[in-house]
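note to self: dont lose this again. the chain is below, predicted strucutre after it. 489 aa total, dont forget to put it in the shared folder this time
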Amino acid sequence: MTGKIFLKLIAGVLGLLLIALGTVDYFATDVAERSYQQSLIDQVAGKCRMLALSMPAPDQLDVEHARRMAVAAGGRVTLIRADGKVLVDSEAVAAEMENHANRQEVRQAFTSGLGSFSRESATVHVKFLYVAVRVFDGSAVIRIAVPLSEIDRQVSRIRRKLLASTALAFLPAVLIAAVLARFISRRLARILAHAGELARGNFRARLAKTDSSEFGQLSRTLNETAENLQQTVSQLQHEHAELEKLERVRKDFVINVSHELRTPLASIQGYTETLIDGAINDREHNMRFLGIIRHNAERLARLTEDLLTLSRIEQKRKKFEFEIHFANGLIRDAVEMVRPIAGKRDISIVEEPGDEDAIVWCDSEAVSQVLSNLLDNAIKYTSAGGQITVGAQRAGKTIEFFVRDTGMGIPEEDLPRLFERFYRVDKARSRELGGTGLGLSIVKHLVAAHNGTIRVESTVGKGSTFFFTLPVEETALDRHALNPEFTAS
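---
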């Protein structure tokens, strides 16, 4: 590849040099020809004036005298009268020659004293340079004709010397061009090879040598392009993996929803058919069957409501009204809602309020739902006589809330999946207690909508503590940037 590029560059440089050489030849030849012709005109005009000084009167000049003057002048001599009649010519019979009044050099000579013109002679059919000078007080002109072949010989000699000198002068340029072509071809070859790597999908390839030249700038641009392509491909691969993960989550979700709906629906259908088949009149069992139907209907209602809530949050259709609220007030309201339920199970709830002036920027209804779900879970999995502690504490630019129970605890291997939809640590007990498996997933999404984080610490047999944070000011809440955990299942 390098050889081909080198040959093309050398061919291009030689072509340019040949064009330059041709241009120099054309203009230099034209200038030399004009210059030599003007010099010759001046020389011949001087000879005409010298001949005029030694020339007898026009009517006394004969052919022999004219021929001797032509030999002395080195050209054809012609004497022309003011009316254009040729008086004598060194090479032709004057009486047989046509009137020369319309000859351009003759008209110029009679007008300005000197005239010149180049053309082919009508008499001897040779191309001449005619130079005419007015003599004898303007009554005649003497004209000397010099063959242009002499000019052609002189111009050709100058042209050969000029071309030879120019060609020699171009040799260093050719050598320098060869060196530059070799350098450029190598740089181009590396750049083309790098472009080929990019075309084959190797976006990790990089051009090592970069400088301030155009090639260096091109190399940096290609490296930046490769970097951008690599990042784009990595992002696409990541998005593809995320899509595959979401697809798996979607399938699991459909399976879980189908399963969760199927169980209460099957129970409702079974007991309804039993009642229709006659059990409605069985006073011993009919009320129990209706109670089971009611329990499963309530379970379906809770499941449907939780699914709708989760869907609204994930699709950003749930509207939040963010305002300033006291952290202790939020805790107090949530505890008052569940205290009667805890009291029935002989579970005490203790508040550990934070600073009196601790405030958060949040949607109070969403935070109430978060605390209610966490407290509800704590009550379900705490035995009678146990204790639940709810409190808040400062954590940098956030307030961290916590709900601590003395329940059964959560195994360490279950902690990473605890906030997944329909994930249950104890499936049988969760269904028995009426859980939908969506409470903690809703909590996670609501906290993430506040740009907060949620975590859990637990020890089996001793209890669990759930922590979540809320911002203390509006500027800490980015409603458009989702928390990284927000898109998790």
